[in-house]
């Protein structure tokens, strides 16, 4: 049982490290705000009380792109 537990923890750690490495990789595709909008990435904010302080007014991101 101990060997199984240790193996599962190792696999989980390796998988998590792989995800972190992918998230930290850099790219040359996104250099401007327009590139960011065209990249297909999405942004989401969960509706909790402390986010209302940081996002008091919703401004469309497309208004910043010319």
The H-and-E topology, N to C, reads as: HHH
Helix content: 40-55%
Got a strand count? 0
Broad structural category:
mainly alpha
Regions with little confidence, pLDDT below 50 for 5+ residues:
none
The tally of domains stands at 1
Walk me through what this model shows.
It is a single chain. With 66 residues, this protein is mainly α. The chain contains three helices and no strands. The protein has helices spanning 2-24, 33-38, 49-54. The relative contact order is 0.09. The mean pLDDT is 80.
Outline:
This protein has one domain (2-64). It is 53% helix and 0% strand. The protein has helices at 2-24, 33-38, 49-54.
Topology:
Layout lengths: L1 H23 L8 H6 L10 H6 L12
Key traits:
66 residues, single chain, mainly alpha, 3 helices
């Amino acid at each position: 049982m101990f060997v199984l537990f240790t193996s599962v923890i190792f696999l989980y750690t390796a998988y998590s490290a792989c995800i972190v490495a992918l998230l930290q990789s850099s790219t040359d595709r996104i250099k401007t705000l327009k590139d960011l909008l065209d990249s297909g990435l999405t942004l989401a904010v969960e509706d909790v009380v402390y986010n209302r302080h940081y996002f008091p007014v919703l401004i469309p991101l497309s208004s910043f792109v010319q």
